[in-house]
Design brief:
The chain has 5 helices and 6 strands, in the order βββααβββααα. It is of the alpha+beta class. The protein has one domain.
Length: 140
């Protein structure tokens, strides 16, 4: 299942129960974080969603047993780059949470993907991003 979240991110829910949330609004730990005053909040989240971000906030959980992926002592990984987001999705789609956590370390290891599945994950992420922009731009 795929969801757009408030025009500033998306969630992907895999068949194995893992949900990956990728957010880049003004309240998220990302390159768009900019909530320095209430005045800046009016329309800022919409603008952040449309603008995109160099880094995003990432979280992942499994509803079945209320398991949250832990990044150090937190359930949210701040300032994650696009390559690491793709790595996390790849590992969680295969139910490999320890590898997913390693993928967002400060110096993520290089992973050699083979086959069509990783390409499909990236294509899905691009489509979701484009859809979230279209939703924000054309929403009433």
């Amino acid at each position: 299942m795929l969801k757009i979240t408030c025009g500033r991110g998306y969630q992907i829910i895999f068949d194995n129960g893992w949900t990956v949330s990728v957010q880049w609004g003004v309240f998220n730990y990302c390159s768009n974080k900019s909530y320095d005053s209430v005045q800046n909040l009016i329309g800022a989240d919409k603008e952040a969603g449309e603008k995109g971000a160099e880094t995003v906030e990432l979280a992942a959980w499994k509803d079945i047993d209320d398991t949250w992926l832990k990044f150090g002592n937190d359930t949210v990984a701040p300032y994650v780059n696009a390559e690491s987001v793709a790595d996390v999705m790849y590992f969680l789609s295969r139910d490999l949470p320890k590898d997913a956590v390693n993928a967002v370390n400060k110096e993520p290891r290089k992973i050699k993907f083979t086959g069509l599945y990783p390409t499909l994950i990236m294509a899905t992420a691009v489509i979701l991003f484009a859809a979230s922009i279209a939703f924000v731009v054309y929403a009433p």
